[in-house]
Amino acid sequence: MSARIRSRRARLVPSMAGLAALSLLAVACAPAGGDSGGGSDGGGDDQGGATEFTFLTTVENPQIRDELTRLSENQCAAENEALPLVVDTIPQADVNQRVSVLASQDALPVMFVSPTSESKVGGDMYESGALLELEETLTDLGVWEDVLPAAASTVNAIYGDMVSLPFQYNIEGFWYNKQIFADNGLEVPTTWAEFTEAAAALDAAGVQPLTASGAQGWTITRYISTYLARANGVDALAQVTDGSASFTDPDYLIAAQELATLGEAGYFGQGIVSRDMDTVTAEFFGGTAAMMYNGSWVLSNVYDEEQNTIGVDNIGFFPFPEVEGGAGSIDDYPANTGTVTAVSASLYNDKVGAWLACIAENYGSSLLENQGAISGFVQNTEVDGVEPLVAEITERMVDAQDAVIWLEGPFDQRFGDAAGLSAGSLVDGGISPEDYMAQIQDAVDAAQ
Amino acid sequence: MRDVLGDRKAIVILLAPALAFYTLIKLVPILWSLGLTFFDGNVLRGYEPVGFDNFTRLVNDSVFWEATAFTLKYALVATVLQVAAGYLLAILYVFVLRKGSALLRTIVFFPVILPTVAVGVLFKRLFGIHPTPGPVNSIIEAFGGQSLDWFASGDTSFLVLILMDVWRSMGFFAVLLYAGLVDIPEEVIESARMDGAKGARLIRHIVLPLSLPVLLSAVVFAVNSTLKVFDSILAITNGGPGTETQPLTLYMYRTVFTYNEYGYGSTLALALTVIAFLVTIVIFRSARKDITADKAAR
């Protein structure tokens, strides 16, 4: 080989190396899928509308996907034929991260679970314009009257706009063991004083009066927000958000003090900080604890014979008691519509509209008939054989006045962590009511 | 082959693609994260430059200082116990069990290959109080004591976390240090024995100085892994109660993926990197001082 050829080859070496490196980078950067030319991952067509009724939901909540699958095979079979339902799931813990990334890449599915705090007016998801405004859409489709007014007002109160389909509609309160109450000669308490007296009587009789979960802080923080709503009115939290009140004010601090007093008396039993929800439901439905604060979604546990060993007839429900002299009413229920289930604004088309109309018309009855659960959609078809407790809860929903917003509802995720992660310690005595309220007020101040 | 490896250009051809790939998957995200420390925002909202605001916020963030204090405390205690337990086991393998140590080495190493989250769940159950008292609480009750909610306070949670980490990783350090100990020439040990060095004196004056380099590596490994502890704490305490057992990694994770604050989360990541870097330098420098002092003494 001549020196000239070697020299030319030597000059080519860096170029070849660079080319090889670039090729590798190109391969590494290329999409994972083979087809890079189609619509978005959300099942969009060339015009941006949907070609599939893609639905992203959480692994932990099979209720909605099961019912939609049932509808796709029955009442909504025609809509499903035009736009097939495709369900995908992600863990609840991944919702914030995954849905935000999908939105940033314009790859959202047609219907999806959306991060709660980001879906409110002012939140990143809302402000990005990714969420379809549902009141206008459902009104245009002629099915707005199929949404329960209370459910619609709850969505609007929490998020500031109709961004979520009310696949669930829950009211919350105390579930109690009728047998234990009867054995101890107790009536259903209607005031906070009666409630604490009942708890004291149960404790004296050797029964654990209450159960809650420190691992799921909301089961404890609800005591604070609902006490505040009873004592200071349903706008108690709104006053904190607009700066006219603070969680450290004496009339707000008392809510945490009352809760800490219950904990100090040992009414929640041992180990509340590490107790999880499975243990809470096992304690209540196993007859260990007399009362449990929870939402109406727990009806599915009530009618599950494997879980409910004390019997359906022994389960009762009463609303969070009134605070004597308070500005709130016992008819104001803490309510929510479950996880935000939004619809993509960019993928909406007539076929999606047809699906939404079918859901609004049929979901309420179908869910009650097949799963014994209540949604925020009207029950257009009469369902036979509704269980008495389900009927009672439905009646309470209809009679509900104002919705009480949960403690974390109006605030951001940092507030949620500040309130939820220390809730068990507040009951356990690990943090004082003063420090707890100062901590959550700090989270409010930091966000402003 | 010698011709190929002696040719710088051939080396470039062979290495360039791999180097470019490494750069792409390693250095680019690091530099990207470094750049994000000067921005505020997230993938949805977009990013806006904020100068040094994230660093000012970091200095004034009490949660950051709490998390840093916990991280350093955890790293210090876990490192000392992990390496000490590993060293004792290595000495046991080499000087007591000798060739019969294979079975014990395998058993002690076994937790290393288990998924951390699975080990976390195991320890949660061991020390748990729900739905029924776990084995540890059962033993306490059997001796007339009262069950304890180990995860109700930061101190007892810390104890469980340390126990779990030491149990899980001592097998790894034992094998690492074992490799260092078997490298010590048998003649040196024998001559020390003939000079009358036995037991603790032999370890203190012969084995320990000769195994110092591998011990140093073990400490650097341990410090860096414990400074970055994440999954085990997430599985056992989730940083609680409150934020009492929240390390920097968990705070960083929450800041980025729960609070959607990518810029500040990157600043926390940078802070953790700097801490790990400084601690490693301190360890190396102090070790070098020891060696220099040793040589001077000789």
Would you summarize the structure shown here?
Chain A is built from 19 helices and 10 strands. Chain A is α/β, with parallel strands linked by helices.
What does this 3D model show about the protein?
The complex is a heterodimer of chains A (448) and B (298). Chain A has 448 residues and is α/β, with parallel strands linked by helices. Chain A is 46% helix and 10% strand. In chain A, the strands form two sheets. In chain A, strands 4, 5, 6, 7, 8 and 10 form a six-stranded mixed sheet that branches. Chain A has a four-stranded mixed sheet with strand order 2-1-3-9. The longest helix of chain A has 27 residues, at 3-29. Chain A is globular. Chain A starts with a helix and ends with a helix. The model of chain A is unreliable at 12-41 (pLDDT under 50). Chain B is mainly α. Chain B is 77% helix and 3% strand. Chain B is built from 14 helices and two strands; from the N terminus they run ααββαααααααααααα. At the A-B interface, helix 1, helix 4, helix 5, helix 13 and helix 17 of A face helix 2 and helix 13 of B.
Mean pLDDT of chain A: 88
Q: Nearest-angstrom radius of gyration of chain B?
A: 24 Å
Question: What count of helical segments of chain A does DSSP give?
Answer: 19
Amino- and carboxy-terminal Cα gap of chain A: 75 Å
Average of pLDDT of chain B: 90
Shape of chain B: globular
Shape of chain A: globular
Main sheet of chain A, how many strands, which sense, barrel? Answer: 6 strands, mixed
Q: What is the terminal-to-terminal distance of chain B?
A: 45 Å
| Low-pLDDT regions of chain A | 12-41
- Class inferred from helices and paired strands of chain B: mainly alpha
What distinguishing features does this structure have?
heterodimer, A: 448 residues, alpha/beta, 6-stranded mixed β-sheet, 19 helices, 10 strands, B: 298 residues, mainly alpha
